[in-house]
Amino acid sequence: MNDLNLSLEKDFEYRPLFLQPDYEGEVKATFISARHNQGNRNAVLYIHGFIDYFFHPHMAEKFLEHGFDFFALELRKYGRSLLPHQHPNYCRKMDEYFEEIDLALEIIRHGYDESTIILMGHSTGGLLACYYLNTGLKKDWITALILNSPFLELNEPAVRKQLIPPIARLISVLFPFAKQDDVLSPVYCESLHKDYHGEWDFNLEWKPILGFPAYFAWAKAVTDAQTFLKEKSSIGIPILLMYSSRSFKPKSYSPETHSADTVLNVNDIVERGMTLGNNVTKAEINDGMHDLFLSRKEVREMAFAKMFEWLSQR
Question: pTM of this prediction?
Answer without folding.
Answer: 0.97
